[in-house]
């Protein structure tokens, strides 16, 4: 295959709401340089995450169009001079980096250390739903929380039917001994969380009472994608020296209520590795482990909605769905 020099891309010309004409525009852009550890991937599917919505609506004015997309699956069609982990023809999946151009494009350049082997048991679309949420869940559980196979205690997964929560429930059940409590409020989202393996599903609208009922000794770890207004409740329902691992950044967050029980607050951002530890191949290994778990039938994809093909109209619709705040699982956009 001749290495392409341009790529058909869906980009934002300026920051704006989901329905603004310039928020999703199909244009032709240069492929860009393929440096030492880079792969050039023919993208077959992408998925949309809250970070895409945040980036699209709030990026600073810039000379070049903003290309979003932080989940992809596709086939390697060219490699940089120092590539060690993949070869032309390999199928990969990855989340990439907010420090580089995104994956909403026909041909995408990504560092091989950010990519993993696509699960052979999944089509490209179902695979594209997993990278960002799987890395986030894995790092939260096993890096920030420090859980091990023999770990016990209680884990509260806020937003259990969301993208990250859907993977975290499965990983915690499969790879640790903790009791998993998930929050949801609608019948369909509660059923989703139960089907993924949550021991208990409680309503976040009645969090303090229901969490205390199922974990009267206190919760050891809380995964929090929705922290605003919840700190005092977290302090109340957590055990002494319990820990919150958050992925959001509400303005004016006050964590002082955690002090009296010596509780802690940490953040998980999967882009920390590509931004600040670019030489690390940790996310490559995480994604390969995720791929193995999928192919063994231990972990399943979290796709709940599929759109095709990859174009401005469908990416706009995917953003609209994520922005609505009631998504169960993930929405993917694929070439077929």
TrEMBL record:
Lineage, uppermost ranks: Bacteria, Bacillati, Actinomycetota, Actinomycetes, Mycobacteriales
DNA repair is among the record's keywords: no
Entry-linked CDD domains: AL_MDR
InterPro entries, A to Z: ADH-like_N, ADH_Zn_typ-1, ER, GroES-like_sf, NAD(P)-bd_dom_sf, Zinc-ADH_QOR/CCCR
Domain Enoyl reductase (ER): 8-333
Keyword Metal-binding among UniProt keywords: yes
Family under the similarity heading: Belongs to the zinc-containing alcohol dehydrogenase family. Quinone oxidoreductase subfamily.
Name the UniProt record assigns to this protein: Zinc-type alcohol dehydrogenase-like protein
Record-linked NCBIfam families: adh_fam_1 (TIGR02817)
Keywords: Metal-binding, NADP, Oxidoreductase, Zinc
């Amino acid at each position: 295959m001749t290495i392409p020099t341009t790529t058909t891309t869906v980009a934002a010309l300026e920051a704006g709401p989901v329905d603004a004409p310039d928020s999703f525009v199909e244009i032709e852009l240069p492929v860009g340089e393929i440096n030492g550890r880079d792969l050039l991937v023919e993208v077959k599917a992408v998925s949309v995450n809250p970070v895409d919505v945040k980036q699209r609506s709030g990026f600073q004015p810039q000379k070049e169009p903003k290309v979003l997309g932080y989940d992809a699956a596709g086939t390697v069609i060219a490699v940089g001079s120092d590539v060690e982990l993949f070869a032309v023809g390999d199928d990969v999946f990855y989340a990439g980096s907010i420090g580089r151009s995104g994956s909403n494009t026909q041909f995408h350049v990504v560092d091989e250390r950010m990519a993993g082997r696509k699960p052979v048991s999944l089509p490209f679309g179902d695979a594209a739903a997993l990278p960002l949420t799987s890395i986030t869940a894995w790092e939260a559980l096993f890096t920030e929380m420090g859980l091990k196979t023999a770990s016990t205690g209680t884990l509260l997964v806020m937003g259990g039917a969301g993208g990250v929560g859907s993977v975290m429930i499965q990983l915690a059940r499969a790879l640790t001994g903790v009791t998993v409590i998930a929050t949801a409020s609608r019948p369909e989202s509660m059923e989703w969380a139960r089907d993924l393996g949550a021991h208990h599903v409680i309503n976040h609208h009645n969090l303090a009472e229901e969490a205390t009922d199922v974990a009267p000794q206190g919760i050891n770890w809380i995964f929090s994608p929705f922290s605003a207004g919840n700190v005092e409740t977290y302090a109340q329902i957590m055990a002494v020296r319990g820990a919150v691992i958050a992925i959001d950044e509400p303005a004016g967050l006050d964590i002082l209520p955690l002090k009296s029980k010596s509780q802690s607050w940490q953040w998980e951002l999967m882009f920390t590795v590509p931004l600040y530890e670019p030489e690390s191949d940790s996310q490559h290994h995480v994604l390969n482990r995720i791929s193995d778990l999928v192919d063994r039938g231990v972990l399943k994809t979290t796709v709940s909605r599929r759109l095709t093909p990859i174009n401005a109209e469908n990416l706009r619709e995917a953003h609209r769905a994520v922005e609505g705040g009631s998504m169960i699982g993930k929405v993917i956009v694929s070439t077929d």
